[in-house]
Design brief:
The protein has four helices and 28 strands. The chain has 385 residues and is mainly beta. Strands 2, 4, 5, 6, 7 and 8 form a six-stranded antiparallel beta sheet that branches. Strands 1-28-27-26-3 form a five-stranded mixed beta sheet, with no helix packed on it. Strands 13-14-15-16-17 form a five-stranded antiparallel beta sheet, with no helix packed on it.
Amino acid sequence: MNRTGRFRDIGSAAVATMLVGATLALAGCDRSSAQLAQALRETQPPYPIVSSGLVFGFRMVGPDPVYWLDDDHVLFPGYEVIPPKGPFGHGRGELSEPGLYVWDIKTNMHVRHASLESPMWKLCYSDGYIFYSTRHGDNNVSLDRYAGPFGQEELLVNDPTGAPAPEGRKCFDSKWPRESYQRTASGAVGTILLRPGDGEIEFGGGTKLPRLVDRQNQMLPIRLIRTESSTPIELPIVSKEVTSFAGGEVSFAPFLNRYVLVAATPRSRDVFDPEVPWPANQPVPVYLIAPDGKVAVEELPAGIRKPSRVFPTRAGLFWVSNDAPSGNSLQAGGWLLKDGKPQKLFDHIVTAAGVSPDGCRIVYAVNDFSASHFRFLTAINVCQP
């Protein structure tokens, strides 16, 4: 019997125990009964998974981005795990100095591309151009900064005042989609800059800053402006669905060639209020905007955990949520909308997430804020059963 057949004959509980044991061993953990019990309660992805063995280097409440070089290679800040010392190798181990890593998911090999400034590195990657800092100085000034095409970056000349180097700004200024704001005679207008050639999306237009939407401009449709000379295209999306500090951000799905916008405010509500949750009886619209202005709408089911980010995949919409109302990190995690039904893929607070350009691989990092073990950047292939 082949190896696949042998595993297929093992009961699901036994397989789960084997997977948990392997995970704890890789993380340098003492396999205490409490840890094993918690791991057994965790959601097991119904798709093939690959663990990088590297800890994602997050700096804020996520999800932070991971950067895709292609469908197989991920660029991200992270740490290697230094095995615990001692006669039996028990314990949590230690983390290396932060570094910039390239992980080949297909071969599960990684390369440390560069060291990163500790503890607060600067990092930007956009369309093959990269900027990062490697050494920290006095007065929070980064001493060594590199920029250029990825793999050809060069050391920048430091400004004595600590001002950002123009080469560094080049990366941040080339990122898309990104927002900008301006005040006009009619009020404050927000602009979401799209890929070169796709134009921009304009929203707002009331008396307040665009992301502080007021009742005057809540129902104004947002507009796609392809070129300065073209007629703006009104989209079936209203300004209050864009204007908030928690949602309403635009991302891009390469395999669909569409921009993704998750409604920030339900149309049944006057204005965005961060203290009021999304109505439990209403689905969450997800708008898929084509460069020519055509818009498709999908919906996340009513009653789901508040999404932090939403990513289309070839298997359905994938979203992450760090909503854990009772303080149990197992309530947070990532879900896939499969055949109209939410399917949980993993648990815990999501510190990083992204989907490959071909829409097949989900890469994520989670943190249950446990001091007893590490959790590694992981990939799930939703194109394989």
